[in-house]
Amino acid sequence: QVQLVESGGVLVQAGGSLRLSCAASGSIFSIKSMGWHRLAPGKQRELVADITSGGNTNYADSVKGRFTISRDNAKNTVYLQMNSLKPEDTAVYYCTARIIWSSFPRRENDYWGQGTQVTVSS
Known about the structure:
Blueprint: E1 3-7, E2 11-13, E3 18-25, E4 30-39, E5 46-52, E6 57-59, E7 67-72, E8 77-82, E9 91-103, E10 106-112, E11 116-121
């Protein structure tokens, strides 16, 4: 079974930086895309950023210019570099991935990690 494991969540002061990482393991043929969602208290989950295996990226407007998503395809790992953090960035961050787990027959699913807490203090 595919597993996504996040790391890097921590308490940080406003204006600080943090890097999250997520490694996928298990039955993986290929990874089409990986990304990050976040869930803040009282709010719905939102897409923060994602990246395809080809390197195409998307960002939420609220994090553009501050966050950078990258990946190491050889390690099945995605990173989220977060700079100029704001208190409103406080949330549980979830690693997500669209993974092809069987080449024949072709099968793909979306997977979610357990989440890692990022708290930004003012």
